[in-house]
Each structure stands twice: as C-alpha cells, then as structure tokens.
Amino acid sequence: MRATVRDVATLAGVSPKTVSNVINGVVPVRPATRERVEAALRELDYVPNLSARGLRNGRTGVIALALPDLATAYSAELAKEFVEAAHERGWAVQIEQSGANAERELELISRARTHLVDGLVLNPTTLVGSGVEGDHGPLPPTVVIGEVEPRGVDQVHVDSRRAAREMTEHLLELGHRRIAIIGASDDAVFRSATSELRQAGYEDALAAAGIAEDPALCIAVAEWAPGPAAAALAEHLDRHEAPDAVFCFTDAMAIGAMSALAGRGLDVPGDVSVAGFDDIQGAAFVVPALTSVSFDKRAIALAALTALERRIEDGAAPRKVAIIPHTIVTRASTAPRG
C-alpha cells in the first residue's frame, strides 16, 4: 500500500500537519525537523496524492499546453522549457497538438471548465475560428502565446513584425535587393497571424529602403516545414531567376530552402544568402550556420506561466501582454552581395 502522510509523521516523530508543511513548502519548518521528515519521505517512498489534494483546494496541479505542430524543433524546444518551468512551480504539464484546429482548442477549454486541468496555454495560429474568440462562454484561466491577440486574454509573444523588419534590413545592408520570403500570407495557400506580421515587417523594410515589393518573391507554403519549403523554392526557381537572398519565416523552412538551393548548384551564401526565424538549437550546426531571429524560449515559458498563475488566482485581473526581446544572430548563411 502507498505510504500516507500519517505513516511519514509516525516515522519522523512529528505531526501530520508538520509533514504537510514540509511537502507544500508554505509554512516554515525548522531545519532539523525538515531533515527528519524528508528522510522519512525517502525511506517510505512517499508519493503525494494529487487527487485528494485537488479535492481539498479545487485544483489538479495539472495545466495543458497546446502547440500547433509538435513535430517541429521549435515546438519541442518550447515544450521542454514549459515542462521544466512548470515543474519548478509544482505543476505537471499535459501537452497537446492543436494542429491549428479550433475544435481541439475548444476541447481543451472544455476540460479546463470541468476542472480536469487548472489552466491552459494555447498557441492559436489565427483569431478567426479560434477557441479563444467568439461566443463560446467564459474562458477558464488561459494564456495565449504567439501573435494572435484575443480580447481580454493574457498574451506572451515576440514582436514578429519588428523582428522581420530588422532581419530584412540586415539583408538589405549586405547589398541584397531581390529578397524572397518563404511563409508569405496567401488566402489560397496559408494564412496566419504570424505570417501576416512577418510579411508586414518585411514590407516595412523594403518600403523604407525605397524598394518596390515584387509579389513573385513572396512564396507561400501550406505547411511550415523543410520539405514544403524546399519544394516551393524549387518551383519558384523553375520559373524565376534566383533571388539575392531568402528570408524564411522559420528556421525549419530555411533548412529546406538551403537544401533546394544546393540541389540547383547554388552556393549559400555565395550565390544566395539565407536567413531564418526562431534560432532553434540546430541553426548553429547546419552548414553553413544559419542566420536567425533569436529569443529566449525559457523567457516565454516563464512569462506565460507567471501570467497563468496570476490568472488562476484572480480570474478578474486586468489583461497583461508580455513582449519577449529578440536579437538578430548573424552566422555564415548570410554575406555581402558579391
């Protein structure tokens, strides 16, 4: 049978209340007493009864994190940071794949309403049809990460428009003028808040430099992954002259773009510079190493969990938005126009 708090208290020679104080860490306990209790916990291999605790305080100790595509390196790195930061707060994390599907978001919201999880961190790709928007009833404790801006919901994001402008300016400063983008917004192919903002930043930089936007250089892909990006760029090269540079809206697409360019015998960065966004761990180790927009993924997790904790404690708290700083990390994949 699983050891109880009373069993631990008997072995340590203290009251059950003292054991609870040590486990929960809310009430200070003298160091010598704490050591005896912790030794008893280890000896009895005590496991907290989270279900019973949840019945007492109305919480499960579990939150849900939903990301659009768990297959991407970016999602894996972000999920890792969320799990580690949540565990430091005593939370377990239920990880879901929303697949940019509003029905899945609504399922998670329903679970939170029935107290199967204490709160949600969602990463919707579009506001239209999202579970956090529309007449779906009051939301449970929810925080949104990413560029979608729902009304009344706490949000954590990177300034994608500004970051995309700065990356485009970096390419312009290197002397590139025909800059293609991969991940452009296209109602017929793919459209998201992220793609719209990053394309707007790209257009801002071109306009400031007095360069007219060329629609042929705005390449849309149905899936932000290496394969679709490589195929889309290869199709573009079949019909057009190679651009001076390619700015991809994710590192995953940038890796696909570099593969497509290599397949055509084009050197990166000698013939075409390539830049990405997200600075995944592999970006520094591809050949050539990838220039990318970098930001602290742990900072995203910490800011989102802090906002969620606040929202769980006070559902009527005013909405807050946290913007995570970014930098342009230049590596070997971008170089001055020869």
Reconstruct the topology from this structure.
Blueprint: H1 5-12, H2 16-24, H3 31-44, H4 50-57, E1 62-67, H5 73-88, E2 92-97, H6 102-113, E3 119-122, E4 142-145, E5 154-158, H7 160-173, E6 179-182, H8 193-208, E7 218-219, H9 226-239, E8 245-248, H10 251-263, E9 273-277, E10 291-295, H11 297-313, E11 321-324, E12 326-329
Parallel strand pairs: 1-2, 1-3, 3-4, 4-5, 5-11, 6-7, 6-8, 8-9, 9-10
Antiparallel strand pairs: 10-12
What does this structure look like?
The protein is elongated. The chain folds into 3 domains: 5-48, lambda repressor-like DNA-binding domains (434 Repressor (Amino-terminal Domain)); 58-157 and 296-324, Rossmann fold, CATH 3.40.50.2300; 160-295, Rossmann fold (3-Layer(aba) Sandwich). By secondary structure, it is of the alpha/beta class. Helix 1 crosses helix 3 and helix 5 crosses helix 11. The chain has 11 helices and 12 strands. It is 42% helix and 16% strand.
